[in-house]
Write a structure and sequence with these properties.
This protein has about 400 residues and is mainly α. It contains 19 helices and four strands.
């Protein structure tokens, strides 16, 4: 934990009186300590730099209604990074680390006690229609083409799939604020949308360099490095994200996947068991554990994990069902494997079904090669071969 993190104080969301008590205790320990108001939290996502200039000496920056900084009605899977709590906390922590005696006190206050914002950009991210949001952002740019306004507008452009406009706005924002992690992070998201993994990785790398305590930047860096077939570097990025957010199931899952790709199966298993402990209802936690156990040759345990995943999976993923069938073959239940394969592949689109059966055949042959004494597999392979010939004939 950095000094900045140690001074990041979050009061209880439902008891603002606890904030007053904490301030009283703090002032008793810090003679002459001051309490100042933060900028309005509704405006935090649209400020660069986020933290104001602070007076010397011990100081508390009190932020009332901090939850207003997190309001974002964007859709289509697009979320402006500066409206994410993890990002704002990382930015504040970095700012506080440069001041020997500053604390941030976040206080949630009931909505009726504070008015809604009238500023253009906060309004934009409170409306539900993307077209109206974009119109308000463009109006804000007319008042001033600041880095924050450009990044916010670029995010909305990505929301409406205008990637060219988003690229222009982000280029301009980075030229104005080359040391702002948010601009580079959004640039990375844009390159992901354009399927340019080298540039996405470079953008996320800059974001991690500028704001190393922001876990999602490390996660995205790891994902892009994985796509670039750089698993060792991807694992290092994912493990950094996990160290920053150790109870995050997605970070654990990412670590488990790459450890498995690197052949570190025991460590992969440990990660997936933690995923299941944190989110027992997540089907893919069980599926990933099953795959790792299968690679270890622990077929009965793998079968149990795949079956648990199928039981929790409303979609009954056909690929994972085929893996369950392979576990059934490996544990001597060829009849059950045939039933599962027929069920899993029934009604699938032709090309998808053919690819799934081809993959199943390849894995089955590999299993037989590694387990020469395996019995009962021949009828399964014969059925798969027959289906493949029938589909290709």
């Amino acid at each position: 934990m950095t000094d900045g993190e140690a001074r990041l104080r979050l009061a209880s969301a439902d008891s603002p009186l606890a904030a007053a008590e904490w301030i009283e205790n703090w002032q008793a320990e810090h003679e002459g300590g001051r309490v100042i108001a933060s900028p309005p939290p509704a405006e935090w996502p649209f400020r660069y730099p986020l933290a104001p200039d602070l007076p010397e000496g011990p100081v508390i920056i009190r932020a009332n209604a901090f939850d207003e900084a997190l309001i974002n009605q964007q859709s289509s899977g697009t979320q402006l990074v500066t409206t994410q709590r993890a990002y704002l906390e990382a930015e504040w922590a970095a700012a506080l680390a440069t001041h020997a005696g500053a604390w941030l006190l976040l206080v949630s206050t009931p909505a009726p006690q504070h008015p809604s914002t009238t500023a253009l950009l906060p309004r934009a991210f409170r409306v539900t229609e993307a077209a109206e949001r974009l119109s308000l952002c463009v109006e804000a740019l007319r008042e001033g083409r600041t880095a924050a306004a450009l990044v916010a507008t670029a995010s909305v452009c990505m929301e409406v799939n205008d990637l060219e406009a988003a690229a222009r706005d982000l280029d301009e924002a980075i030229a104005l604020a080359p040391h702002w992690a948010a601009a580079h992070y959004e640039h990375g998201k844009l390159w992901l949308r354009r399927d340019d993994m080298p540039r996405a990785a470079a953008a996320f790398q800059v974001a991690t360099d500028l704001l190393p305590r922001f876990a999602p930047a490390w996660s995205n860096l790891g994902a892009t490095l994985g796509e670039l077939d750089r698993p060792a570097e991807a694992l290092a990025a994912f493990e950094t994200a996990l160290a920053l957010d150790p109870a995050n199931p997605q970070a654990l899952n990412n670590v488990g996947v790459v450890r498995r790709e690197l052949g570190r199966l025991t460590e992969s298993e440990s990660a997936f068991r933690q995923v299941i402990q944190l989110t027992p209802g997540l089907a893919f936690g069980h599926y990933n554990l099953g795959h790792t156990l299968f690679l270890q040759g622990r077929f009965q345990a793998a079968l149990s994990a795949y079956a648990e995943g199928q039981a929790r999976d409303p979609e009954k993923n056909p690929v994972q069902a085929s893996r369950l069938a392979l576990c059934q073959v490996a544990t001597g239940d060829a009849d059950g494997a045939l039933r599962e394969l027929r069920r899993a592949t029934a009604g699938l689109p032709r090309e998808y079904r053919q690819q799934l059966l081809a993959d199943t055949s390849a894995i089955l042959w590999a299993l037989v090669t590694q387990q020469p004494g395996l019995a009962g597999w021949q009828p399964v392979q014969a059925w798969v071969d027959g289906e493949l010939r029938g589909k290709s004939g």
